[in-house]
Amino acid sequence: MNLYAAIKYTGLFFVAMAATHLSFGQETVFSIFKTSSSQADEYFRQEQYKKAIELYRALPQHDNEVCLQLARAYYRIHQPEEAGMWYRQALALEQPLPPTDMYQYAEILCTLKQYDQAIGWYQKYLKANPSDPIAIRKIWRLKNRAYLYEDSIHYTVKRMDINSPAGELAAVPYNRGIVFVSNRPQKGMILHARNNADPLYRVYYSKRVTDTLQGQISIRYETPVRYCHELHAALQEGPVTFYGEHRMLYIASGISARKKGKQTLQLYFAELREGRWTITGSFPYNSTEYSITDAAITPDEKTLYFSSDMRGGAGGKDLYKSTFVNNQWTKPVNLGETINTSGDECFPFIDAGNTLYFASNGHPGLGGLDVFKAAVIPSGFGEVTNIGYPVNTNADDFGIYLDESGTHGFLTSNRLNNNDDVYELAIDLQNYPLVIAGILKYKEESWKDSTELKLFPHAQLLLIDNLRNISVGTASTDETGAFTLTIPYSSQYRIKVIDRQSGEEVFVGLELSKRKTTENRYEMVVVKNSFKRITNTLIK
User: Fold this and answer.
1) How confident is the model at residue 33 (pLDDT cuts 50, 70, 90)?
2) Quick one: CA dihedral 255, 259, 264, 266, positive or negative?
3) What is the tens place of the pLDDT at every residue in 121-178?
4) What pTM, to 2 d.p., does this model score?
5) What is the DSSP letter of 146?
6) Other C-beta atoms within 10 Å of 428: how many?
7) How far apart are CA 15 and CA 311, in angstroms?
8) HSE on the CB side for 148, CA within 13 Å?
9) Which run of H or E residues covers position 169?
10) What are the chain's domains?
11) Phi and psi for 95 in degrees, rounded to 5?
């Protein structure tokens, strides 16, 4: 072999070696990227969405499935702008969205106030799921969203000074101040974090202070301080619910073992003893398989409402109730399809008038979580009503609390910079139950002058809910025609007046003011020749 031939052969050898190394290198890089994608998928399945996002974004190519996974992950950590951007990236690849993603994209567009586009995507979703009642109701609500702004003048919503650049939520009154939870960094302490790298939530207290300056009275809240140190959990703390004249509480806490990468929250009871909070027990239906949180208790302290993702629900988080009977809590009962949807229902609250308030992204609203209310009635619940703007916005609005008068409270919302903040709430709407008083009078003929009005004694009155066509209250007039009648909840009503002597009846309209007023006295006039013989069974 001559020198030239040897060099040529050697050169071919090096080329072959280089090609071998290049091939090995490409295979290794491909394996690494494949591993990263698989690990991102695993983080997604474990609901560690921020870790999943980091790996997905680091991939060299963002195909349709990666774009969709990024959109889904951002949707789940409530970053609608990013989620919308990745859905648009997926759409740019000219591949159709799966039906579930159509629905989620419509939800995101609602949060971004792009309501007309949202309607379009709900309609596309309905082509694949034509009988989905939630999507149908959401389209109707968005097309008639002006209704949600009608009572806006009756609400005042003010962001509180206790808020920080971190998250604050679920404020309740306590000891001349408020208690709430926050994931603000703690000075002088190691920053603990959840599986998605968010700081943990802790319980804080802020004292309310009244200042007088130049004859003007103002109320402010002092700098928040850590509260319930003795109830410190290894993981998340709160929200907190007080009862028993503020000497007992329920606290949601993440102190149990992690299951499949997901931390669950459980409910614990505590009592104030010699100035310190002491854990006295746990809710008997706690489980590491699901979370129980957002506790609310009725004024009589006999029924506990809470939110849970336990199996057997309608989907997502559902609301449940448990009753204290014979010194023990009954098995939780799902509140049913009137309240729960395939979305999330959370942060229940029961006011002094036995009305259930809760947050939901399944019932139709303005976007994200909205606050809804429904009267608690013997047969279950009345109509679910969206409270409307400005309590609700296109952002997440939840965690409402109202005092006994129903005129003051607190609210949590991320309407500002997508960050959870606590807001103070003032309401001048009429609250329920409402007791009205009045006089029932009559005249013989409709054409006669009003001076001929006579008192109508011993008549029976039935309060009829027009929306459900049932009787929800009854009363009788005395010998002077006077009566009192309890209006159980906000609705549209009429009164059936029954003449006990003749057995005849007539209906009278009842107009109730939306604005709270101290004047609730009514004069009702009926015309005797308008009465008709009862031919059907009385509404019961």
Assistant:
1) low
2) negative
3) 999 999 999 989 999 999 999 999 999 998 898 899 999 999 999 999 999 999 999 9
4) 0.77
5) G
6) 15
7) 62
8) 24
9) strand 168-173
10) 3-147 (1.25.40.10), 152-427 (2.120.10.30), 434-533 (2.60.40.10)
11) -120, 140
